[in-house]
């Protein structure tokens, strides 16, 4: 849906294909089962931007740098985990919001405008 489907960079697929030709694989599509180049980016979830959607677990981020395009926070894909020589087992995008009682300032709602990406591999 529109809340979990971020806007990929127009050149992301091209870059991923070049890196694939160099022997690297992309973690998200490998873990989530994308097999065709057209679907590789469809397995991505947000790695930057917080809109306040329920799955994020926190408020919209308006203090750091999530204003892209029209001046409203939105989800974008800016990060990827690339690998070779190991087997991916899981990947998870983790929001970095700060609970209200722990914020240094009421408008500082997140540690970063990027999400953490937790990846696990096996040898």
Jot down its keywords.
15% strand; 3 helices; alpha+beta; 123 residues
Provide the fold topology.
Elements (H helix, E strand, L loop, with lengths): L11 H10 L3 E2 H6 L4 H4 L41 E2 L3 E8 L21 E7 L1
Verbal overview:
- By secondary structure, the chain is α+β, with helices and mostly antiparallel strands.
- It has three helices and four strands.
- The strands form two sheets. It has a two-stranded antiparallel sheet with strand order 1-2.
- The longest helix is centred in the N-terminal third of the chain and has 10 residues, at 12-21.
- It is globular.
- The chain starts with 11 loop residues before the first helix and ends with a strand.
Helical content, roughly?
A: 10-25%
Kindly report how far apart the N and C termini lie: 34 Å
Strand order of the largest sheet: 1-2
How many strand units? 4
Strand content: 15-25%
What's the gist of this structure?
By secondary structure, the protein is of the alpha+beta class. The protein has helices at residues 12-21, 27-32, 37-40, and strands spanning 25-26, 82-83, 87-94, 116-122. Strands 1-2 form a two-stranded antiparallel sheet. Strands 3-4 form a two-stranded antiparallel ribbon.
């Amino acid at each position: 849906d529109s809340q979990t489907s971020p806007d990929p960079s127009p050149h992301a697929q091209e870059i991923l294909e070049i890196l694939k030709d160099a022997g690297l694989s992309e973690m998200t599509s490998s873990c989530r089962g994308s097999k065709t180049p057209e679907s590789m980016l469809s397995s991505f979830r947000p790695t930057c931007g917080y809109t306040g959607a329920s799955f994020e677990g926190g408020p919209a981020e308006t203090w750091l740098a999530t204003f892209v395009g029209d001046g409203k926070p939105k989800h974008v894909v800016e990060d990827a985990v690339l690998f070779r020589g190991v087997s991916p087992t899981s990947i998870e995008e983790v929001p970095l919001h700060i609970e209200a009682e722990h914020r240094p300032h009421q408008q500082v709602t997140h540690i970063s405008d990027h999400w953490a990406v937790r990846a696990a591999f096996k040898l």
